Amino acid sequence: MAGLYIDATSGGMALQIVLSGLVGGIVVVKLFWHNLIGALFFWKRRSADVVAEAVASDSEPSTS
Question: What dihedral angle (degrees, nearest 10) is formed by the CA atoms of 6, 9, 15, 18?
């Protein structure tokens, strides 16, 4: 049981490593959220693009 002692410096450093890993993971997810969702739900994005193109082509004024 003598090897279970962690001094304050080592404990603080371990806490910083864990917290920085969590914050870094949150930042990565926040930055790439749309790419992640697009990759997971690729079939929904495709149908939404088709609907958006159809709506855009209907709303364009005619030039003739």
Answer: -100
> What pTM does this model have?
0.50
pLDDT along the chain (64 residues), means of 10: 76 94 94 82 66 65 56
Domain borders along the chain are: 32-57
What phi and psi, each to the nearest 5 degrees, are found at residue 62?
-80, 145
Q: How many CA atoms lie within 13 A of 21 on its CB side?
A: 6
DSSP state of 29: H
Cα 10 to Cα 4, 5, 19: the distances in Å are: 12, 10, 14
Within 8 A by CB and 6+ apart from 45, the residues are: 38
CA distance 37 to 50: 18
